[in-house]
Design a protein that fits this description.
This protein is an alpha/beta fold. The protein has 19 helices and 23 strands. Helix 1 packs antiparallel against helix 12, helix 11 crosses helix 13 and helix 12 packs across helix 14. The longest helix has 16 residues.
């Protein structure tokens, strides 16, 4: 099944994670079973606390949306063991008419080589000029000849080799086999059989005949095999007993992995121009084969974006994916699509408020545990209803979800915002809720830490500034901002790297030492970014 990933933004917060899970649950409940929640970054401690409280595991983490080999409808022919006979391998090649080669694998499933029709043809032409059979397992010979062992000596050997020869009439002395290192093929020819047994040749193959009682009593070390085929077919088949691993190509094989990007694969295919390439998984085991035909119509990944609609905040490779829907509560940004899509963008404080409405629109109630998570997500994103982004719809949705889950909003809020952050490194804290923006030619980053004791966080200002200055230099940001949003003070301690004048003009304050307190500023989306957009725009 080709999944439809539902994913929030990079460095996901609780609203982003829960929105992806809730929307996937909604679609799956309606019968659309291919929807799968995903996340683009590490789940924060706050979010993990919410997940644990309501008994959920974090969604699958994905690193990109590039079209990869695993997205192609490649072929999965039978994988041949190195020990399988050339005869059986040839049957597989005949069945896979659209493939020029099939993989030959080691016992652990890793690639040994590629067996092509050309390999088999080359081997057959070689045997046309050389009649010597290199040592092959006895079981292989019995398999291709549909043979059975007729004597005790045959039960004591495991490998067979020798000069393959057809017994001729006794009066042609110069054409008779005369070496012990021989594999003799004959029919109902008692004299030839006796000669072979007395010489103790390596193997005697009887074609469409049985061994007489008299000859059975002859002492011999020769392995005697009976086959239902005639001599002509037997001499051809016996060379097909050679293991496929011996004749396949093992050097200079170009292969690809499931995670390889299709764009890079196309370049290599143009460079090497082979007709068939093995595909390996992360453990180097063969999972299929790729031909140029598979690259003509690659299957793009499908994705639904929740809680964002900005390329800089989304997954790498999004331009190669099919965006099916966007459900968000932020400003419209720069994502473009190839086809018309469903977009639901509403001015509320939480994406989960929108998804709660979508449950209602479809006449479906979320499970108690899912409703509890959605209530927690709304509380988190609206900072317990104190954010200016919060609307009455958010409060109503949170209260409804809390009733379904039979939980207290007050208790949920305390659980969310009392999560300990003092023991985290400044690096980890900065990227807990971090987003990058592009506004009117300016690139910037804004991180936000929501807490109940901002003075303690402010005491670590120099730690934050050191990381922020380094980040600004590495990425060429015009500004890096850290919002220490205090739920109790109902305001934000702003730490920044960049122009003092920009902060002064945008927020009508007098900053000092890269810091300023902004009363009643709680929202990055509705207060900080719009002010900078107005200034720069």
């Amino acid at each position: 099944m080709n999944p439809i990933y539902v994913t929030g933004h990079k460095n996901p917060d609780t609203d982003s994670i829960v929105a992806a899970m809730a929307y996937a649950a909604l679609r799956n409940a309606l019968g659309d079973r291919e929807y799968e929640a995903a996340c683009l970054g590490r789940v924060s401690d706050e979010t993990q606390t919410v997940l644990d409280r309501f008994g959920f595991q974090p969604p699958k983490r994905i690193g990109n949306m590039y079209t990869q080999v695993k997205d192609l409808e490649f072929d999965t022919p039978p994988l041949l063991s190195t020990a399988v006979t050339v005869g059986r391998a040839w049957k597989v090649l005949r069945e896979q008419k659209h493939l020029s080669a099939v993989p030959v694998v080691n016992e652990d499933g890793t690639l040994h080589g590629m067996l092509s029709r050309e390999n088999v043809a080359s081997y057959n032409m070689t045997k046309a000029t050389s009649s010597y059979l290199e040592p092959v397992p006895l079981f292989n010979v019995l398999s291709v000849l549909e043979g059975r062992i007729l004597n005790d000596a045959g039960d004591k050997i495991d490998m067979i080799s020798g000069e393959v020869t057809v017994a001729l009439p006794q009066d042609q002395e110069n054409l008779l086999f005369n070496k012990k290192d021989s594999i003799v093929i004959c029919g109902s020819q008692p004299d030839m059989i006796r000669r072979a047994l007395e010489m103790n040749v390596n193997c005697l193959v009887l074609c469409q005949t049985e061994l007489s009682e008299e000859l059975q009593k002859l002492p011999t070390d020769t392995c005697i095999i009976a086959t239902p085929f005639d001599a002509y077919r037997t001499i051809r088949l016996i060379f097909e007993s050679v293991p496929a691993g011996r004749i396949c190509k093992t050097d200079d094989i170009v292969g690809f992995h499931l995670e390889d990007r299709v764009d890079e694969v196309k370049e290599k295919v143009l460079q090497f121009r082979a007709s068939c390439y093995p595909i390996l998984d992360e453990e180097e085991k063969v999972v299929g084969v790729l031909t140029r035909y598979h690259l003509l119509r690659p299957r793009r990944k499908r994705v639904v974006l929740v809680d964002h609609n900005e390329i800089a905040q989304s997954v790498p490779g999004l331009e190669e994916a099919d965006i099916l829907e966007i459900i968000d509560h932020h400003r419209l940004a720069d994502i473009q699509t190839n086809n018309p899509i469903y977009v639901r963008n509403e001015p509320v404080g939480s994406t989960n408020t929108i998804i709660a409405s979508m449950f209602q629109d479809r006449g479906l109630m979320p499970s108690a545990n899912m409703a509890g998570m959605m209530a927690a997500a709304i509380l988190s994103d609206t900072v317990m209803f104190k954010s200016p982004t919060c609307t009455n719809r958010d409060k109503v949705a949170a209260e409804r979800m809390a009733r379904i889950a039979n939980v207290s909003l007050e208790d949920l809020g305390k659980m969310i915002f009392s999560a300990s952050i003092e023991n985290k490194s400044a690096q980890d804290l900065l990227f807990l809720d971090y987003k990058e923006f592009h506004i009117a030619g300016y690139d910037l980053a804004v991180a936000q830490i929501t807490c109940m004791d901002s003075p303690n966080m402010l005491a670590r200002k120099e730690e934050f500034l050191e990381i922020m200055r380094k980040l600004s230099k590495e990425k060429g940001f015009a500004m890096v901002i850290l919002m220490l949003t205090d739920v109790l003070l109902e305001g934000t301690q702003l730490i920044y790297v960049g122009s003092d004048e920009t902060i002064q003009q945008a927020f009508t304050v007098q900053p000092k030492d890269n810091t300023v307190f902004l009363p009643n500023i709680m929202s990055r989306k509705k207060q900080v970014i719009p002010m900078l957009s107005t200034l720069w725009g």
